[in-house]
């Protein structure tokens, strides 16, 4: 029998899971963004970073371990409500397709519910991602800092281009998050079913199986998301007016100058981050959900 869907509980538990994800995964996210946006080396010059571990080494050497956590305030403030809305969207996506509260959804229906979550979160995710990427790139530079922090960054973006500047890259974020969220939630649900022993319910699963399902779901999510994420990062950190037609111009320039392999730049830190961060997210979600079911069984 399918687990009963409760949007209110999913909202609260999802927010807690999102906080767990940020704290666990932010260092590798910093490395991913720096690799994706580093300048293209001139002929005969060495690239700024030779790979994931070189980027991490240089960051720690120049900025200390706190450099790996640059820009974390923006996603931490944004991710708790964003993941709350994300899990709420997935829950509503399920509810819309169920004919009865106990109906077990098909794999395609689970994927569709996840895509609804991607639509729900873009409004929160896009500005948070823009601010985070700008702060991460600034920290990697050698010149004077332009932004004092997330709030100052948001203020300056608003002064320079209004609300459109803050939401620059929204379509790119949507292009990334809708199919990726479908894969994320759909694969987690399927893995949970496969890992549940016969004659037992999902609530009986131990933490190790939850960590495995969440970690693999995170990796599958990024397998879908990495290419549009590279385009999004380039667009959101580019000077105003660099790409008049948005993500299409980013794609054309990237293909012309760097080739298709550039779409997968940053894949190593993404995958290294994806398993532990999303394992922590879903474990936090399941723990919070069990607590809510115990305290508020009727909600």
Give the SSE layout:
Layout: H1 7-37, H2 52-63, H3 73-97, H4 107-140, H5 150-166, H6 170-195, H7 207-237, H8 247-257, H9 267-295
Helix pairs in contact: 1-2, 1-3, 1-4, 1-9, 3-4, 4-5, 4-6, 6-7, 7-8, 7-9
Give an overview in words.
With 299 residues, this protein is mostly helical. 72% of the residues lie in helices and 0% in strands. The chain is built from nine helices and no strands. It has helices at residues 7-37, 52-63, 73-97, 107-140, 150-166, 170-195, 207-237, 247-257, 267-295. Helix 4 (107-140) packs across helix 5 (150-166) and helix 4 (107-140) crosses helix 6. The radius of gyration is 20 Å and the shape is globular.
Query: End-to-end span in angstroms?
Result: 19 Å
How many beta strands in the DSSP annotation? Answer: 0
Largest sheet: none
Q: Globular, elongated, flat, extended or rod-shaped: what is the shape? A: globular
Into which percentage range does the β-strand content fall? Answer: under 5%
**Helical run tally:** 9
Secondary structure category: mainly alpha
- The proportion of residues forming helix, as a percent range, comes to over 70%
Radius of gyration: 20 Å
The ordered H/E elements are: HHHHHHHHH
Q: Pick out the low-confidence regions.
A: none
Return the average pLDDT rounded to an integer. Answer: 89
């Amino acid at each position: 029998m399918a687990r009963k869907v409760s949007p209110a509980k999913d909202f609260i538990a999802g927010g807690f899971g999102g906080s767990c994800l940020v704290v666990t995964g932010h260092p590798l996210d910093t490395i991913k963004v720096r690799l994706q946006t580093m300048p293209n080396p001139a002929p005969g010059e060495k690239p700024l970073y030779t790979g994931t571990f070189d980027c991490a080494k240089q960051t720690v050497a120049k900025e200390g371990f706190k450099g790996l956590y640059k820009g974390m305030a923006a996603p931490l403030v944004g991710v708790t409500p964003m993941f709350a809305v994300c899990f709420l969207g997935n829950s509503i996506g399920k509810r819309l397709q169920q004919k009865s509260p106990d109906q077990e959804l098909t794999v395609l229906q689970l994927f569709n519910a996840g895509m609804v979550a991607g639509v729900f979160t873009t409004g929160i995710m896009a500005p948070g991602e823009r601010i985070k990427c700008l702060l991460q790139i600034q920290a990697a530079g050698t010149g004077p800092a332009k932004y004092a922090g997330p709030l100052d960054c948001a203020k300056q973006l608003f002064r320079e281009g209004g609300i459109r500047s803050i939401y620059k890259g929204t379509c790119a974020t949507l292009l990334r998050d809708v199919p990726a969220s479908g894969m994320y939630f759909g694969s987690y649900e399927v893995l949970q079913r496969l890992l549940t022993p016969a004659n037992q319910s999902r609530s009986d699963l131990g933490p190790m199986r939850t960590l495995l399902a969440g970690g693999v779901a995170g990796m599958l999510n990024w397998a879908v998301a990495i290419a549009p994420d590279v385009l999004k990062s380039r667009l959101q950190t580019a000077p105003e007016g660099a790409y008049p037609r948005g993500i299409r111009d980013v794609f054309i320039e990237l293909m012309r100058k760097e080739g298709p392999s550039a779409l997968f730049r940053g894949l190593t830190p993404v995958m290294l981050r994806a398993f532990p961060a999303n394992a922590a997210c879903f474990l936090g979600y399941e723990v919070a959900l069990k607590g809510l079911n115990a305290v508020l069984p009727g909600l």
